[in-house]
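Page 37, top half.
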Amino acid sequence: MTTIIAILFFAASMANVLLMVSSFPLFHPPANKKSIIANIREPQSRNFQKQVFVSSLMASNAADEEICTDLTADQLDFTMGYLNKHHSDLLTKFSLAFTELGREMKRKNGLSGGSFMVESAKMVHITREYMSIDVTVNERGKDKMLRRVTIDLDSDLHPSASQREYSVVKEKTPRCSENAVDDVMRRLIRLCQIVKQPEVTGKLIQLGIQIGGKATGRIEENLYLNNVPHNRLVRKYFYDMACRATLDAVILCSEGKLSNRMQITCLFPELNTAMDAYRVGTLLEMARALAITLAEQNLRVRVCVQGSMGVGIFTAIPKQLSGVATLLQRMDWQSGEGEENEGMVGTYVNFGGVGKEHVVNAGVDRRGNKIEQDDVFIIICPQSMVGQETSIYGPLSEMVAAAGDRPVILLNPDLTDKISSGGQQSVRGRSERIAFQNSFKSIYHFQCTYISGTSYFPIFGALGKFGPTEPWIAYHRRDRVNNGGEIYIPIVAGEDRPESEVVMKAAEI
């Protein structure tokens, strides 16, 4: 009898366990993402499929479904307290540039200057949509008045505002649905750019990091980029950032939200060809990391390096790319039998040159075998040379046209003209070449900056854009006291690349 009861108890326990397991939600690609790209395929016979991206996709899916909330009470108090204490003049400019108050001030001061003045401004509330400011107005012959104005965070200049006093920024900041702090700060940054207060924008990035943003624009401390060769962890830090940005860009491209013409610029010292610290192995490692990241999502990637250009005995390849094509194929891809990425090279990662003949489309070969088309193209350091028939514009533009709407990613490109004999790369056709160069949108950018006229030491700061929808941010590198390390401080931010004069002025404050 005891044995029968024990068997029944065990069966009931197993039934409960099975019920619990069956209730766990299974992973499905987000419905609002076209499975990374429209023609993504199911995994075939290979064992390099990773699980790391499953968790990131689930996290992004949860973020997409997260309810859009406003700032918490603590975040609201801290934000208003900081702006009221340190940037009351900025709030005054907001009230004059984006509300009827500016028109009224101009009209009343038109006949008698100084008859209508704004003494102070204090923020009393802010949400993801608008902010409320109490403005103290001093009008001649009247008592001081307290007037409340409301400003939409996506406001354009008031029609009465003079464009000589302000900048025109028509492009709206993309919505950041997963984090209210970043959403509010990026909209305030746009308004700062309109009222010509770029030196405040870096402080808003810092404020967002402090009060609970997703650390947009934060650079790790103690990278010590002046020390070469770099630590392996430093290199991996940049590889990982570039890979995340690339994957996000491919997803956006598949959804029709981003152009298929993309570029990655990563110029820390080991990737800067103008420095003696340049290391071709770092360039190859980054290209490999990008290709593997995309291949892990069942995308067929073609990694391309341009071949020789020129005429006759004046045929050559850029010094930066000398031997890169051979090294790229001989480096360790962990693609052999029994290795981590078994079967990847030759199936999901292939190699090629620059030109329309290197674009593989779906079809059938002469033996009736199916040919799989390339999904993504990564072109390493495309550039022109001095000489005749040495412009990269021709073969690269033909290749981009042949790729259609498939992503074409340029890694550290240099598409500027190299003036040559015979009038090549000169005035003729320059507008078309410049338009082609500008058609590639930056999806990731990191570049060390230096004081003009000095050597490449010490590093002044950096310029970064860490994703296709992230803002441009300029940084100032500062040393901690008592050799406590180094830190990169955001000083200027915006949706467009900041000018060097603006960066230098902000660094002096």
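Page 37, bottom half:
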Amino acid sequence: ASASLGMMVGAVSPTIDSALVIGPAVMLVFLVFGGLYTNDADVPKVLRWIPKASVINRGYEGLSVNEFTGLVFDDEGPGSIPTGEAALKRMGYGDSTVGSAAVGLAKILAIQWYLTYDILKGQKPKFQPLLPPK
């Protein structure tokens, strides 16, 4: 899915140099809102679309659900989390499943492919029509 983001950035960019600047900047935004550094509930309302459009967030969500579901932790200290489901709920993934994360990734992939196609179609070169010989 990250390859489709790269294709979309390449389609939007007028030159290779600008694509090499825009690509890492876009990925950095998705990394920050990817779920490891921020909780989806803590993101300001204006920026709530970013975690939903992030392939990193959807991948992290799917891997977290896969890893934590069914776990029971031994530590009973203050502030401890007794189960993996409680950990998922604390991360904001309480209602998530691996399937829903995979569907979210597929939607992001399809949207990015469509946008790439649409951008490239709009940028196709236009030539002067050939006139018949006299």
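Margin note: The radius of gyration is 21 Å.
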